[in-house]
Amino acid sequence: MLQKINGHTNRACRLLKDADPREFFPRTLEFSPPARGTWNIVHTGLQLPEAHQIYICASGCLRGVILTAAERGAMNRFSTIELLEKDLVRSDNERLIIDGVTDILQGLPKLPPAVLIFTACFHHFMGTDLAYVYHELRQRFPGTDFAECIMDPIRQTRSITPEERLRREIYRLWRPRPQESRTCNILSGNLPTDATSELTQLLQTNGWTVRDMTTCHSYAEFQQMAASCFNIYCNPFGHKAARDLKQRLGQDYLFLPQYWRYDETLNNLSQLAARIHVPLPDYRPRIAECELALDALHEQLGDTPIALDYTLTFAPFSLARLLCEHGFQVCRIYADAVTPEDRADFDWLQQTHGGIELWSTKNPDERVTPRGTSGKMLCLGQKAGLVQRQPVFRRIRRRWRPLWL
Amino acid sequence: MKLHQTAHILSTYSADTFGVCSALFELGGMIVMHDPSGCNSTYTTHDEPRWYDTDSLIFISGLNEQDAVLGRDDRFIRDVTESARQFQPAFICIIPSQITFLIGTDMKALARIIGQQTGIPCFTLPTNSMHYYTRGIYYALEWLATWACQQQESTAAGPQADQTVAASPAPAQITSTAHPTNPLRVNLLGVTPQDFSLNDADTAMKEWLQTAGFSPQSCWAMGETLDSLIHSTEADVNLVVTYGGLGAARILQQEKGIPYVIGTPIGAMQELLAVALRATAEDKQIRSPYLNGISPTTGQTDSTASLSTLTAAPPLSLSSAPMSAGTVDNPAALADAQSAPMQPQLIVGESIYAQSLAAALEAAGCGHYQVIVPVETERTLLRPDTLQLTDETDLIPRFAKARTIIADPMYAPIITADAQLIRLPHEGFSGRLYAKEIPNLITRSGFTALRAKCPQ
């Protein structure tokens, strides 16, 4: 561990006890690990039924999003307007967007009910009048809803991120309608919430209808979500959307972070039970089941070291604490920051398990850090798995693929 | 008529910044894209198949709005310098992307400062993510050629040797090395996964050279080190296999008197190129067999006839022409396309590779193929009926009249049901999506398999 690189300290790693939660690793150049499987804004946009996405940027920016759509087999719901050098000196970039979007929409077999338009850093720096653009587009296509999305990574570290904005803009498509009692939405998730989860069960067994964009089959069904009484979300990218909906539609919200430990999960469920005015069920049998499962797993793994990363969960420190509390040997955590909701577990680990190695996923030194371990290691998450390579990753035609997925 | 710049359903080609990274990937340098956080993941995910098992120092600066607006170049210098000291790369290449280009960041000045502070050669190239990968490869290999010439001169045996190199007329020098008992040494220029993927096409090209009686001197830039490229200045002749290699060829000709031949060794092109390489090594004239070796209109079917045509053909007079793609930025190309006849058989791809393939298919009796080049090239490299077209609006009418189209599968949505699409995935267009399908057309079996799919 903590090998030196050309005689210098490895900047990609430090012990948990030495980590500053305000900034784990100083800002510097960034490395992109050869493990990419997390969702991006294209995936999220594709969840909106019947919607079409249009990206307006340079080829270097377009390429990643186009190929994401292509890999999802969704090119028929995806179009682009490519910016060229001449566009840097033109004074009517608004016209390029308006005419380009018009051209694309008129070329579709059927006008979509919603269009997600993604402008870029370029438009921000050029001062493009996007209010005029959307006003004009809405005039031209009164039957289509336009979501004002932006793919501007240049602003993401100090402003709203593209992921947060996209979620907010998608839900801004909801038109106000009378609220229906005993209905709630699950916002901002990447995947449908498990129907057998305590969260879903608590709602449904008490007569609540649960709506989720990831399970909607039509745009009309998505619009129906506007009638729900309140919103629940587990994905921190949903903060902006939830606050915006409360302000705009009066929908209250509950943020129930994706915790791993019993008391945290019970706290989430208690909040939900209080919100829907039902008693909290007795979860002790479920906890006992979990304990048995964890014991069985521990028996199987023994002292096998465990590495985990933030791509597996929004709360890696909560998961690490759960594992440590049950005797597992967590040796590495891959995370570049700690979220407010995960901070308490980070603090606990720092005080009690300060010897755990904390690794950056994007510090340049990661690139030259030797990969693999001499013995077996259980890797939870693609980035941890890639760095450790064996035994959870195996080589298939120059690609590293996780076996457990 | 649909608008230019809009793509209803097509992909876009890899960007110039990624072309630079691809060309320099294996050479031990550190390449830094001056761009916001995450913008490098497109390259590492879709455009660089070597990223998974070959370590290379390719990073991004993580430019943010505040630093861009406030002109915090000092942070960029600090970050690059810090990592350069950590890794001690052979060189540092810093390349601007869209926003740094837009705000006019003085990358040359930054390169000079970083070079002075680290003692490591640092340079920049004119990228902005608003052009295609061929342009990036061109500039990167061109820089490498300049560097290799400088290194070769500075490491020569002594002042006298330097004077000898400088004073000797290049032709005499090369004639002396082209002795029959010493096979001609050939550099392959313009070889990257963007055009050839990772299917051993680079190895196949070297094997072909050896089989044809040549000695492969270097391959720019796969399977090489920076040191090995220095020795490429000792070659007798260069073979430019894609447009990305042409800038290096020009430098090596200018500085070292090494002449060059243009073409990709596919099918019958292998014999034609072998003849051309020998002739060019001897008379120092540029040749491009796909341009003047096979008649594009008659469709030579007999390779012997083609060979005799080549040896009789006049050398190519290749003046430097502006680099351009088939976008609306290139109105001359669009105007040419308006008046060009519609052809029933099309190939879409990189200029030298696709035209070499067309020539090879024609020589194999498959009839004439018109080539469409969407990415940057030079007009003088194109056959008379080759078109430079990039946008859907220009491609759709051409595709509508075609009977057979050899192209990346991502073009399928704009190909009519009446036409046959012969799938030829191109990593520079569809990335990793169809990478497993990309054939190695340098091998006889690879070319034969493709030819078998073409109407005879």
Could you characterize what this model shows?
The complex is a heterodimer of chains A (405) and B (456). Chain A is of the alpha/beta class. Chain A has three domains: 13-35 and 286-402, no CATH class; 41-171, Nitrogenase molybdenum iron protein domain (Rossmann fold), CATH 3.40.50.1980; 183-275, Rossmann fold. Chain A has helices spanning 41-46, 59-71, 93-107, 121-126, 130-140, 162-171, 198-204, 219-224, 239-249, 262-275, 284-301, 316-325, 343-352, 382-388; strands at 13-15, 52-57, 78-82, 114-120, 145-151, 183-187, 209-212, 230-233, 252-255, 305-309, 329-334, 357-359, 378-380, 393-396, 399-402. In chain A, α6 (162-171) runs parallel beside α9 (239-249). Chain A is globular and about 65 Å long. Chain B folds into three domains: 16-130, Rossmann fold (3-Layer(aba) Sandwich); 136-312, Rossmann fold (3-Layer(aba) Sandwich); 323-453, Rossmann fold, CATH 3.40.50. In chain B, 44% of the residues lie in helices and 13% in strands. Chain B has helices spanning 16-24, 41-47, 65-70, 73-87, 98-102, 107-118, 133-154, 159-167, 170-177, 193-196, 201-211, 226-230, 246-256, 269-283, 289-292, 303-312, 331-339, 351-363, 392-401, 427-430, 444-453, and strands at residues 6-7, 30-34, 57-60, 92-96, 122-124, 185-189, 215-220, 237-240, 260-262, 323-324, 345-348, 370-373, 377-378, 387-388, 404-407, 420-423. In chain B, α18 (351-363) links the parallel β11 and β12 (370-373). Chain B starts with 5 loop residues before the first strand and ends with a helix. β3 (78-82) of chain A pairs antiparallel with β1 (6-7) of chain B, so a sheet runs across the interface.
